[in-house]
Amino acid sequence: MNRPDDERWSQPSGLPVGDLLVDGPVTVNLPIPSSALAIGAHPDDIEFGCGATLAKWADAGCRVHHLVLTDGSKGSWDPDEDLAALVAARVVECRAAAVVIDGAASGPSSDDRVLFLGHVDGELVNGEEERREVAGVIRSLRPTVVLTHDPWRRYRLHPDHRNAGFLSLDALVAARDPHFFPDIGPAPHRPTSLLLWEADLPNHVEDAAGFEAAKIDALLCHASQQVTTMGIDPGRQRDPAPDADVNPFAAKVQHQLAAHGALAGLPVGEAFHLMGNL
């Protein structure tokens, strides 16, 4: 991936989540929220964007919720893929990744940890009904912090990532204000903070020290994406050294965590654009 001859660009990570355009000083570490809602376009986007941050917060007692907007049905390069089986597998993978990030679910509200809207992968739109759905989730879960894609990241190719970001932001506005969707039930809710991952202009870093392995292990739960997204040989389980292909991927994740942390003088971190006063 070629970048402009501009010293503001960090060293490319080689991961499918974009690199950093540095723009001045950053803040570090929000107070641990009581609850957080991460909204991703696809089943593995949340782990790529904020997996270590969610693991850190969950370890400190935060209630973490994952909202996946699409069914992940385009997540294969095999033209003969059984798409129904792929969609089902990706649901299982998401739930397994959530366990890695925030532990085994328990209690009467455990079924709201990973939610799926099931829109067709590659065809996500920021329409009125989609905003109604996401606003309803925000009002129901009442998170302190919402995390999602930065829709303003320049040169973003995938339409779902752009649309997921704008959909999440527009739904947040609808969720906080009483005259949007008054028929959806729960009272309006205004989160305290919004964190945008893959930030075009990061201004905030969450210290990820100690949670690097959680991010990597959660990503590896997405076995259906190990070839297309992570560059891991599908036959690695049969290899006498099965970690041979995993290690380069893990090194890329570590490299990106180091680049993000360096923005705030930290060994490792995850960078975001922080928006408050919502």
Report on the structure:
By secondary structure, this protein is of the alpha/beta class. It has one domain (29-275): 3-Layer(aba) Sandwich (Rossmann fold), CATH 3.40.50. 33% of the residues lie in helices and 15% in strands. The protein contains six helices and eight strands, in the order E-E-H-E-H-E-H-E-H-E-E-H-H-E. It has helices at residues 45-59, 83-102, 128-141, 159-176, 212-220, 246-262, and strands spanning 27-28, 35-40, 63-70, 114-119, 145-149, 193-197, 204-207, 269-275. It has an eight-stranded mixed beta sheet with strand order 1-7-8-6-5-2-3-4, sandwiched between helices. Strand 5 (145-149), helix 4 and strand 6 form a beta-alpha-beta unit. The chain starts with 26 loop residues before the first strand and ends with a strand.
